[in-house]
Amino acid sequence: MSTSKPSLFADLAGLTDEVIESMYEEVLGKLATVDAELVGLHLDKKIHSETIKFAVNKQDAPPTLGVDYDNDLIHLAIQQKEQFDALIKARDALVERLVVPPHRVSKTMHEFYNKLTADTGIGESPTLASEIEMFSRFFELQAMLRTYHENDTVQSELRKTRLELLETIKSVNRNDRKIIQNINQNRERGKILRNEAGRLRTYMKSNKRTPQRPMPPKPDVGERLFSGESITMEELASMLEHGGLIDEKPESPRGPSKKRKKRKSIRRSVPIRGEPKRHKKRE
């Protein structure tokens, strides 16, 4: 005994058109909410990706954040990266001023100090000019040694900021993977709701009752349209209902330009030189 397959519209039998249309409107409302969340997730995903690129020097400028963007982790990552860049510039500026190794600076200062403070005889004492020169070089080396101490402080802060930035970027990367999972989950929810809305719409059309609101366009309708593929009249009406064609147009790169064939010049500018043909005389 063969069992008949359950109908796709078995649960809709016996319901009035007003109830079915109300169900259809409710599904469209949920679908609009899911699509709005999907757009927000894509924007958040873009900000996370640009923050990671900015932190690893694959992007010169930080991502553009709105006034109402309240992700503290992204703000912290950008702040730490800017602080890291400032410390890099400070370190480079200090390194340019350091032309003598630190051990030579300390050794030379020790030698000058011993010469200036040593007890010498009457005939062995340095002249005034040599003392002025040694004092001048001593103070110069003392300032250079102070610069070395500043450089050590900057290097310590640089290492600390670098470790903090790495930990922050790891957290940003983990959040980025979570956003990808949420995007995939929202796509599945949107697919289920879209199928349900299509089922209700098909049932209403089979009962000769066209719903007032059209189905929202699928995410890839604009890409299919501008890539040269055909779309249905329902998809076209839905695109016009939900914002038109301008917002759906993706940025398409310019195709390769056709190379013009080089035409051979009819007249050559350089005359052809050659030996004249010699005709043999008939004997």
What descriptive keywords fit this protein?
single chain; 283 residues; mainly alpha; Helix Hairpins; 2 domains; 6 helices; 62% helix; 0% strand; rod-shaped
In CATH terms, what is the fold-level topology of the largest domain?
Helix Hairpins
Structural category: mainly alpha
Distance from N terminus to C terminus (CA atoms, Å) equals 115 Å
Shape: rod-shaped
Strand proportion: under 5%
Could you please describe the fold and organization of this structure?
- The structure is a single chain.
- The chain has 283 residues and is an all-alpha fold.
- It has two domains: 16-117 and 127-216, Helix Hairpins (Orthogonal Bundle); 217-250, no CATH class.
- 62% of the residues lie in helices and 0% in strands.
- The protein has six helices and no strands.
- It has helices at 17-55, 72-97, 102-117, 128-206, 221-226, 233-241.
- Helix 1 (17-55) runs parallel beside helix 2, helix 1 packs antiparallel against helix 4 (128-206) and helix 2 (72-97) runs antiparallel to helix 4 (128-206).
